[in-house]
Write a structure and sequence with these properties.
Blueprint (H helix, E strand, L loop, with lengths): L3 H9 L4 E3 L1 H9 L5 E6 L8 H15 L3 E6 L21 H8 L2 H5 L9 E4 L1 H4 L4 H8 L4 H4 L3 H9 L5 H17 L3 E5 L3 H13 L6 E5 L25 H9 L6 H8 L4 H8 L3 H17 L1 H16 L8 E5 L8 E3 H7 L6 H9 L3 E3 L12 E3 L5 E4 L2 E7 L2
Parallel strand pairs: 2-3, 2-5, 3-4, 5-6, 7-12
Antiparallel strand pairs: 1-6, 8-10, 9-11, 11-12
Length: about 400
């Protein structure tokens, strides 16, 4: 078992802020397993790489013998977390929350050992709250304190509405800490205010306040905005290995250090050495490491081999998606190139397909033939391979 100092060094590595570091040292020195809380609201179907940054830290605590307390925000999701947002976030209906939450644990289990964690839906206690309980909770803070938040103060300056129910969210998240008697709470940097509210509520309840440990925010595949489902710049844990790898290969080069640091166990020295080489090789290694974590070593080797064959050896990957061309679409043994692109789901519209043909991005067959123009027809046979940029599909003739 590592010493308290060794644990402190490991657990604080990569952290953005610790409130307070001396309290964490003291808790670790006490020698008892700490109760380490992390909450996630089921706001969509997908858990993505951005969520794994604090989840990976939670796993580190687990590996050192501490207790992971995972809060599934079945009550807070109905309010909507305002943290880091410049507009109101719509809450979800009970039906949406239940549907989204169904797959969350399965995905989180790819990072955290769920069998050894406490999993607590916060509706378990909030559904028992009466009016008097809610009044007491609301009376634990002031409007002035709430407006200290950067997101709220910015919205006041810009004239953007702040709805009263949004002010309830940090109090609910803080009360979760009281219910589970958290020693430590993890979150992203935008969550610090909410985590600090938990400290206040624990003090008022006669508990020792939790340590707040925040992790940096992971930027998404665009290299600019926070990774998120609403922005569409995310990589989901449940995505196929090929999709995870392909999305990673498309991130800007300047994003690699951040992703290596927050998404892998590589040391700073190892990261420096990798990034000193060719960017494309560094990106392939990163993509393979992400796939290895969530799909296993065999899947990582397969996507790497397919990538090399398709883009370095100019061949097609072994595993190719298939699509069906109905017989009614075939005339004299051929199909419009535009229609093929849409049927293969390479493009969502005929107009987009025509533009891709004009750009020379579409080809078909073993000789990678390109249509002369957007009006061209493509001779089709069962098994014909068609390509658009990095997308590849095999045609199957329907009846």
């Amino acid at each position: 078992m590592p010493t308290a100092d060794e644990q402190f060094a490991l657990l604080t590595r990569g952290a953005a802020h610790i409130e307070k570091a001396d309290e964490l040292r003291k808790k670790l020195a006490a020698g008892r397993p700490l109760r380490v809380k992390y909450g996630i609201d089921p706001t969509g179907f997908d858990v993505h790489l951005g969520h794994t940054v604090p989840l990976r830290k939670l796993r580190q605590f687990q590996e050192l013998g501490h207790t992971a307390v995972l809060i599934i925000g079945t009550a807070t999701a109905a309010v909507g977390d305002p943290s880091g947002r410049d507009s109101s976030r719509a809450g979800l209906t009970p039906e949406q929350i239940e549907k989204n939450a169904a797959t969350y644990l399965e995905q989180i289990a790819k990072v955290v050992d769920i069998t050894k964690a406490e999993v607590r839906p916060n509706a378990d206690w909030f559904n028992k709250f009466g009016f008097a309980d809610m009044l007491k909770l609301l009376g634990s803070t002031t409007v002035q304190r709430m407006l200290e938040r950067d997101d709220f103060s910015n919205r006041i300056k810009s004239g953007t509405p702040i709805y009263l129910h949004e002010c309830l969210y940090p109090l609910m998240q803080g009360w979760d800490s009281v219910e589970v008697r958290a020693d430590v709470e993890l979150g992203g940097t935008e969550q610090l205010y909410n985590l600090m509210v938990g400290r206040d509520l624990q003090r008022a309840a006669g508990q020792e306040p939790q340590v707040c440990l925040t992790m940096p925010i992971l930027r998404g595949t665009d290299g600019e905005k926070k990774m998120g489902k609403s922005v569409g710049n995310y990589v989901a844990l449940a995505e196929p290995a090929r999709e995870q790898f392909g999305k990673t290969m498309r991130i800007p080069d300047g994003l690699m250090r951040e992703w290596y640091t927050l998404l892998t166990d590589r040391t700073p020295g190892e990261i420096d050495a990798i990034l000193a080489g060719k960017p494309n090789e560094a990106k392939k290694a990163l993509g393979a490491e992400i796939v290895r974590q969530y799909h296993g070593a065999a899947a990582a080797e397969t996507v790497l081999a397919d990538w090399r064959k398709q883009f370095e050896e100019k061949g097609d990957p072994e595993a190719i998606a298939e699509f069906t061309v109905p017989a009614a679409e075939v005339a004299d043994g051929a199909v419009s190139a535009v229609k093929l692109i849409v049927l293969a789901k390479f493009c969502a519209s005929n107009g987009e397909a025509r533009r891709k043909i004009d750009e020379g991005a579409f080809n078909y067959g073993p000789d990678r033939t390109k249509p002369a123009d957007a009006k061209a027809a493509v001779p089709v046979a069962d098994g014909l391979v068609v390509r658009l940029g990095r997308k590849v599909a095999r045609l199957r003739l329907g009846s």
